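Risk register update: the risk of archive-format incompatibility is retired. Evidence:
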Amino acid sequence: MTDTTSLPLPASTEDDHYGEISVELLGEHREKLVVSGERIPTVTIVRAPEAEVDDHIVIGTRDPRHLTITVDGEDATIKPGKGKLRRQTYRVDVHHGGIHYRLVPNSIPFSKLTRDGKHLGDFSSDGDRRVIAEWQEEAGTPEALDAAIGYALSAAFGTGGQPMWMMLVDAISAALP
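Archived output:
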């Protein structure tokens, strides 16, 4: 029997449009992130066993060779950026059913979710699997798939990022006596 006492409890949030959404980190090595809810499709992101694990990322890696994503059991494609200095490098792209989703930092706490280039909403997550979504009214009501993808990517990779100038100031300040 597997000891699951050290596994974290599901994190849940109440979405304005889709009710309770649950985020679970599963597996012996916490390699599977599952986002589900009564009114959204289930999205599962899995890290391959051979992947080098980065403890700063909930799912453990940004290497697309070691990640898979499914939507209600149907394969999709996930491609995270490398996550270097510029915010744009922290983007995560998903292609599913002819739709292109992108989550990319747009401020210190938030990342914006786009569907085929249209800004749908802003997401915030501190890496504790709890996600807050602020949907753009002018974008209309988000689809259930929009919510599922947005919550999954935000929980798996975190959100937000400092602007490059702020990181440079921090680096210079740290180097000064």
